[in-house]
Amino acid sequence: MAPNSLFAILLRSPWWISMLLVLVFALASGALLPPQYVLFGAMGGLPFLVIGVLAAKRQWHTPSAARVAETRDRLAAMAWKDFANTLQAAYSAQGYTVTRLSAKGADLRLEKNGSSSLVAAKRWKAANQGVEALRDLAADRQALGADQAIYISLGGVTDTAQRFAQEQGIQLLTDAGLAQLLKN
């Protein structure tokens, strides 16, 4: 799906906007079409109903902005040892076997169902993340034979770093994603 298509935009928007479009289709059909065609006209809103349900399902489990800010402030106040313990507990609760690493780019190794992931989180408090740390993580993923790589940051990630992460298949875990991971 194109990122700026109507349906992609609606998926990123609050769910009720799609439902409002369904209502508009139904009302317009009732007002403008002969009675025998109202049902067919109203069915034009069906794609928006599906998008609204999908958006609602996604947004149901997404933490609120207040929750994200509270989590961010709490994590920013932590020392590395406490933050690493928090991450380890969160991933363990999801069924991962967590191993601490002393690699240049990776801090944790996650294993579950025969798949392994590396997590880099030591620079989680840095105000702006660049490509260097992501390069180290990508090199460690290749050297250690991990399937996936996750980079955790509370600060912003530069555009160059975002492009590099996308090219290398590195998942960037920031704000809302981190609050979701640490929800318990």
UniProtKB/TrEMBL annotation:
Residue ranges of every copy of the Restriction endonuclease type IV Mrr domain listed in the record: 76-182
Tagged with keyword Membrane: yes
UniProt keyword Chaperone present: no
Keywords for the protein's UniProt record, in alphabetical order: Membrane, Transmembrane, Transmembrane helix
Ranges that cross the membrane: 7-31, 37-56
Pfam families registered for this protein in UniProt: Mrr_cat (PF04471)
Name of this protein: Restriction system protein
Organism: Rhodoferax ferrireducens
